[in-house]
Amino acid sequence: MSPLRVCIDARLRAGRFGGVEQVLIGIAAGLSALEDGDEEFLFLTNPGEEDWIRPYVGGPCRLLPTRRGSAQRRVRAVVRGVVERTPRIGPRFSLRVSDGTVERAGADLVHFPIQDAFLTELPSIYQPHDLQHLHHPEFFSAWERARRERIYRTHCERARMVVAMTSWGRRDLVESYGLPEEKVRVVPWGSVLWEYPKPSAADLERLRRALSLPDRFLLYPAQTWPHKNHERLLEALALIKRREGLAVPLVCPGKRTRLRGLLGGAAGRVIIGRRSAGPRGRRRAAVRPRRPGGDRPLRAAALARSSAAPDPRRARQRPRRAL
Questions:
Q1: FRET pair for 243, CA 20 to 30 Å: which of 23, 167, 174, 261?
Q2: With contact defined as beta carbons under 8 Å apart, do 252 and 274 qualify?
Q3: What digits encode the pLDDT tens for the residues 103-134?
Q4: Are 272 and 257 in contact (CB under 8 A)?
Q5: Checking DSSP bridges between strand 299-304 and strand 96-97, what pairing results, if any?
Q6: What is the DSSP letter of 299?
Q7: Pick from 221, 163, 151, 171: which is nearest to 188 by CA?
Q8: For the chain, what is the domain count?
């Protein structure tokens, strides 16, 4: 009997979707560390866009490039973008169809950690992450809401299993899409911090000087998209300043969007950057101010720590098998 061959969709360009990128790095690192069993894991990538995940792929894992090159992908993306925006009928063309790569590779199962999956007759696991287009429609145009609804609902219905990272997310998927409870499973998101090289004292000092970082600060590594809830975090820090007279420095690495003006005008307490790998060695805490309807309920929790490095006694625990 031939070994189980699982394909994981990793068709991402580095830096565009940071959260999903971290999920895929965690999956790749965990599966690459497996030493028992004879399963094979193929990470589907676009040619020329796989450098971000390559360092984490090893052992029973390998990269599987798609058939189309960058020029062909760009042309198809432009044509598809025009067709999808056609009034009334556009969203129905938002569903992608497999180009045959995973089928020719002999995959037995496809895992879609990326929401924008593709249609295939192979059994699949789908991971939509959240349904914010239903809970926060104000963040999206009517076209984008219709497109997301078509993609998410179709792949949730076609998948053999739908994965949520929290029990709240599982309940939301079951109630919003009428999915059978036994079809939706909770698989918690594991930290990937130990997969990154720990910065040296010299690295931290050089970065501190370059970015004018204070000795202690809060770190919120997230793209400045509305659902990441930077506004609520700034309101909380302003409340602390008014009540306690304490000005808490905040570092916000991530892509700059239209909310940059809001962050940049926060009385000098906010530092905006583009990368999150450096400051974490000097941070005092990491914060996660989330809205309801995202990947978990609203919370503003501070995870106090003096270093980004995890407990070395726990960092290299062997991954648990989920198949």
A1: 261
A2: no
A3: 999 999 999 999 999 999 999 999 999 999 99
A4: no
A5: unpaired
A6: E
A7: 163
A8: 2
Residue with token string 């989330």 = 290
Q: What is the pLDDT of residues 188-232, one digit of tens each?
A: 887 788 888 888 999 989 988 888 888 888 888 887 778 888 888
| Structural tokens at position 19 | 């959260």
Burial class (CB in 10 A: 0-12, 13-18, 19+), 221: buried
Return the bridge partners of 112, or none: 126
Which structure tokens are listed for 309? 């490095």
| Residue 245 sits in the same domain as residue 169 | no
pLDDT in tens, 6-17: 999 999 988 777
Q: How many CB atoms lie within 10 A of CB 95?
A: 17
Number of neighbours of residue 37 by Cβ within 10 angstroms: 11
321 falls within a domain:
no
The angle that helices 167-177 and 142-158 make with each other, rounded to 10 degrees, is 100
The parent domain of residue 279 ranges over 199-307
CB atoms within 10 A of CB 154: 15
State whether 204 and 125 are in the same domain. Answer: no
- Rounded Cα distance between 57 and 60, Å, is 8
Beta bridge partners of 271: 251
In a domain, 182, yes or no: yes
